[in-house]
Amino acid sequence: MSKNVFLKIGIVVSWGLLLTACGSGLVIQNVDFSQPIETVMEADSQANVEDMRNGLVFNLSSVLDSEGINANDFAGTSVHMIRNHEGFYFLTAPGFQNVYVFSVGESEMKKENKIRVNGDRIANPAFNQRNPLVQLVDGSRTFNLTKDGIRN
Fold it and tell me: CA 81 to CA 116: how far, in whole Å?
């Protein structure tokens, strides 16, 4: 083989290694994913909710099963959701005993935690962003939440 062939192969291999190394090292850090205002969505009779503003649509059937709530009885109920600075979604609704924390995957929301709210079932929830915490207000009760649970 001639020197030109070896030189061309060497150049191609070098470019391939260079492009591979450059593509995997790009990271944007210190991203704040928080939503300043909660999203409120109304559930339909099949337990579907939709946030037109953010283009988010999902079904709550598994959450309702976990809460022991029938989807037909839940129709018309307001579902409250907010995203914290780390990108976790916090979700609850009137009648729930818990706040659910979800991470986002490819076409899925994966439950990371189920935070039990002591006392009566949640009656009138509202989320507030209080970085680094998410605040749940339910009437006179207030809870400071992280993805790991309630913080005093």
Answer: 16
pLDDT tens digit sequence for 53-96: 888 999 999 999 999 999 999 999 999 999 999 999 999 999 99
Write 143-147 long-range contacts (CB < 8 A, 24+).
Answer: 143/99, 143/117, 145/90, 145/99, 145/101, 145/115, 146/84, 147/84, 147/86, 147/88, 147/101, 147/112, 147/113
pTM here?
A: 0.82
- Residue 11 gets which letter from DSSP? H
Distances (CA, A) of 134 to 3, 58, 90: 65, 22, 8
Those residues with Cβ within 8 angstroms of residue 37's Cβ, 6 or more apart along the chain or in another chain: 82, 129
pLDDT in tens, 31-41: 888 888 899 99
The token pair at 5 is 């062939």
